[in-house]
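input
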Amino acid sequence: MKFKTLLFSASLITLLLNALTINTVNAQTNDFLYGDQLPDAPELSARGEYKVGVQTVNLVNPNQIDILNSKEGKDPTYDRPITIEVWYPANVNNDAKTVEYDEVMGTRGDTLRPLTPFTFKGRAYRDADALKGNKFPLIVVSHGYVGSRYLMTYLTENLASKGYIVAAIDHTDSTFKDANAFQSTLLNRPKDIRFVINEMEKLGAKGSKNKIAGLVDVNNTAIIGYSMGGYGVLNVGGAGYSAGLGQFFTGMTGGSSAISVNVAGNAEYEKLADARIKAIVAFAPWGMERGVWDAEGLKGLKTPTFFIAGSQDDISGYEKGIKAIYEGAINADRYLLTYKNARHNVAPNPPPAEALAPGLHIDEYYRYAEPSWDQRKLNNVNQHFVTAFIGKHLKNQDNAKFLNVQENSNEKDWTGFKPRSSTGMELLHAQPAN
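output
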């Protein structure tokens, strides 16, 4: 009898300890915000020394071609609204509260899935005063189709904490809330990115009434794009589109004329070269399999570029898609980080808790999630390599040991990674031909 009582007591203690452990894990999970480090996170994924402010800025790009209402021989124009979110090093009061971002799931595009609002916490402070005294390099971020300026906050907050001013774009006609016909995205991606760089220069100039007045070093700019954002940043960086891109504008003479401004060999396109841009990061850039680029167009990419891809990307393609862009950009110093068995979602935040709700369309979950990878792991690795690459080109940091690693991560632990944690990846590097 005593023996049974002792067993019962031991079992009860075990159950209580297990419950305590579960509660502790749950508490830690609740405190874990997008971009925080997992125990095996690589070295440069850690947040930087600065607290981060964040502000929303509403812009208007006047007299833009209204491609969605363009007809043969007619090019109506409109004032194109563009909203950006800007993160920056900040002075923050001890009693300040961190931000909650307002986002939606669903899309108003072809599938017409209902929009479901949700919020998620960040580690930035809404409308905090900017930290004065130094200029900071600029980073402009372009989301996928569909997406939003909040799609990669794990990265935008992280980079701002390391001494960058980061502007993420809501591309009109391409967000969850306002997705529209694809021609608008094709035409406006590079135009929006160029416009935002110029507007950030104005906002960051001395005498501006914005919080970041006098703080933006626009001559040290990096551009980051995911999927259709990758399509945009590569073009802004020098990779002219092929003449065949005009096929997407069949029946729109004005549209074909408008997109031709960004075609390789066009004299107007050559004038758009921007020496302020020192580095490009292209996550899963779309277009190669659809004939958006050819060999001549890719030769125009001379800005150092870091490509990030999944080996099973079924949206942009891998061997004939992203890797083919990497191989064809022969005049750029370039890297290709490949996540083995990953598909297209190598860039976004993790899925929100609301995406796990029973009965919700699985595409809400797969707008963010990767089937073979923990999204938080991908986020940490992205933070590490983007920090190394952009730091090298915008801050002259000596990050060679993090970038010049063995190609196959399974054969040897990569520098900056904890033992046994750098599996399932490949990092290629190619020097420019000229």
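quick obs: Residues 1-29 have pLDDT under 50 and may be disordered.
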